[in-house]
Amino acid sequence: MPIYSDLLSEYIQKLFAQEDEILAQIRERSAAGGLPPISVKPEEGRFLQFLAAASGASRALEIGTLGGYSGTWICRGLPANGKLITLELDPEHAVLAREHFALAGLTERVEVRVGDAHDLLGTMGGEGLFGFIFIDAEKEGYPEYLDWALPHLAEGGIVAAHNAFRRGSVVDPADQEADAIALRRFNLQLASAPGLISTIFPAGDGTAFGIKG
Questions:
Q1: 4, 67, 81, 196: most buried, per Cβ within 10 A?
Q2: Using DSSP, how many helices (H) and how many strands (E) does the chain show?
Q3: CB 124 within 8 A of CB 150
Q4: pLDDT of residue 2
């Protein structure tokens, strides 16, 4: 039975998730700008685009912008009138992400909000429901982000989260670091949430997702 590997990753990328010039530039500019190399892989980005499209969302939320690479994939899965709100803690990252969204022709469809995501989410309760929510910020905050996301997710909407495996530590009982504990708690919450059909897409570092019934 094949084990997911770099070769299989490349196979998926070539068939389904080839970067166009814009995505390649965003990735390269992010590296040149000193951003950490923690963005989703191309096949994970394509999966986010697929999920956003499958959800039928016209409004999407991303918690953790970084350089705008994953946000560009997500926005491409929304309809022409769709909008993405993305939250970023670091003001310098936000500046670069806005440049990248402009490069992708998405300035009018993406709003980058700067600040602590927990604080920003606390001000968004009256903004309506989202059809797609993607979590990719500090791992200790994942359980709280999910607690916020589920009541703010539309019926039929999808919530997704990157790094669900945390480099395999979720199945290593010896790893008692805060991030590993938080991811185990998050995955359990997602698996047991009433009215949610959920699983983990096992490419890269794992993308957990659930569909609200």
A1: 67
A2: 8, 7
A3: no
A4: 62
**What is residue 165's DSSP assignment?**
S
One-letter amino acid at 23 equals: L
Stated as kind and residue range, the H or E segment containing 92 is helix 91-103
At 45-66, the pLDDT tens digits run 999 999 999 999 999 999 999 9
Place of tokens 């009215």: 195
- Residue (of 106, 87, 109, 210) closest to 157 by Cα position: 210
Structure tokens at 186: 């998050």
126-175 pLDDT, tens digit each: 899 999 999 999 999 999 999 999 999 999 999 999 999 988 888 888 88
Closest to 47 (Cα-Cα) out of 19, 21, 16: 16
Residue 38's alpha-carbon distances to 68, 70, 78, 137, in angstroms, are 12, 11, 23, 10
Radius of gyration of the CA atoms of the chain, in A? 16
